[in-house]
Amino acid sequence: MPRPDASIPLRSLLFTPGSNEKMLSKASSSGADAALFDLEDAVAPDMKEKARPMVLQAIKETRATKGGPPVITVRVNDVTTGLLEGDLEVIVCSELDAIKLAMTDTPADIRAADAILTRLENERGLEADSIGIIALIETAEGLYNCYDICKAAKRVVGIGIGSAEGGDLSNALGCEWTADGRPLFYARSKALADARAAGVPFPTDGPFTRFKDSEGCRQDAIAARQLGYVGKAAIHPNQVEILNDVFSPDPDRVAYLREMIEVYYEAERAGAGAVSFNGRMIDIAMVKDGERVLSFAAAIAARDAG
Question: Where are the alpha helices (DSSP H) in the chain?
Fold first, then answer.
C-alpha cells in the first residue's frame, strides 16, 4: 500500500469470508477498492486452518484479474489467539498489500505483527515493509492507545474503527448503537484524530451491518466521510457502489475547486496572499485542501480507467 500519503482510493473494503470458496472467487469482480479476505470472525474455529490456503489462492487470483481491486488485504486473528503467526506464515506473499490486525489493543500488538512480517519478508525475498498493517480499533483499550498504536511501526498505514452495530467496540464501551451515530461519535472522532496526528493515510470506518438498508448505509457513510474517514468496510457487494459514491468528491465540487485554485494562484502571482472568490476569502490553507481533493479525484479517475 502507498506511503506516506493516500495516493490511491480506499473508499470500499469488501469483507469476504476466508472459508467460503464461492464468495472468494467473486472478490475480484466486486468493484471494491480493496478485497478484504477474513480469517477472523467470519471463519468458524474448526475451519481457520483450512481457510488459510484458500485465502492465499484468492489473493493470487484476485491480483491476476484485470480490473480487480487494486488493494488486497486480509483480516488476521489477533495476537492473543495464538493464530496470528500461522495466518501470516501461509498468506504472506508478494501479492498481499496489507493485513488488518484484529483487536489491536496496544503498540506491543503492532510490534509483534511487525516482527513476524519482517521475518517473512526477509525469508521470502520481499521488499522490507512492503506489507502494511491496518490496526483494527475494537476495544476501549485500543481506542485509548490509538495514537501510540499508529506510531508503533512504520508499516502501519491505516486504522479501522469498530463502529458496527453490536460490535466489539460498542460492547467494550457499554454504549447503545443508534442509526444517527451519536453514541460512537467520540470514539470515531478520537480514532480519526489520532490517526491523522500520527500521519496514517488510511483511516477507515467500520461496516454498516444492515445490508438491505441502502439509505441507512449511505447516511452512515456520509457521517464517516464528514468526520474525515477516507473509506468504509462493506459486508455485502451491494454496499460497494454506495461507498464508492459517498467517498468520491462531488463533480461540482471538483469543478469549483479547480477554478478556485486557478484564481488563487493567478492572484498570488500578482502579489496577493488572499483573494475573494464567489463571496469567500480564499487563502493558501483552502488551496492546499482543494489540491488534496483534486489529487484524490484524479486517483479515482485512474482507478476507474483500470
Answer: 21-25, 48-64, 84-91, 107-123, 140-144, 146-150, 168-173, 185-197, 214-227, 240-246, 251-269, 284-304
